[in-house]
Design brief:
Blueprint (H helix, E strand, L loop, with lengths): L2 E5 L2 E3 L5 E8 L7 E7 L6 E6 L6 E3 L7 E6 L4 E6 L8 E8 L9 E4 L3 E5 L2
Parallel strand pairs: 2-11
Antiparallel strand pairs: 1-3, 3-8, 4-5, 4-9, 5-6, 7-8, 9-10, 9-11
Length: about 120
């Protein structure tokens, strides 16, 4: 399993941008699909974006398409989420997760970070 640590969250005004980073430690980083989830207060954890093993395949939740971009750097054991045009409804704790394949089911992921808070407010 990987150990994952997120960073980059914070407070941003609507329309602003943030980039989240997730640093992985452990073996075989490039064998894992990596996904960003988020969880807002009182809501279930939802998949935001996933990147496949080589970074060539990505997918996004409809709510973030065109605004968020996921990427990975296998040489640095890093995954990123560039978030643009942020909206108040993007406010949540964002989690990085690693698993064998991209999925919206949290049970498909074996490694999780501790989460980073993103708050979008004026």
């Amino acid at each position: 399993q990987l150990q994952l640590v997120e960073s980059g969250g914070g407070l941003v005004e609507p329309g602003g941008s943030l980039t989240l980073s997730c640093k992985a430690s452990g073996s075989n980083f490039n064998y894992y699909a990596l996904e960003w989830f988020r969880q807002a207060p009182g809501k279930e954890r939802e998949g935001v974006s996933c990147v496949g093993l080589s970074g060539g395949s990505t997918n996004y939740a409809e709510s973030v398409k065109g605004r968020f971009t996921i990427s990975r750097d296998n040489a640095k054991n890093m995954v990123y989420l560039q978030m643009n045009s942020l909206k108040p409804e993007d406010t949540a704790v964002y989690y990085c997760a690693a698993g064998g394949f991209c999925s919206d089911d949290v049970y498909d992921f074996t490694s999780w970070g501790q989460g980073t808070q993103v708050t979008v407010a004026s």
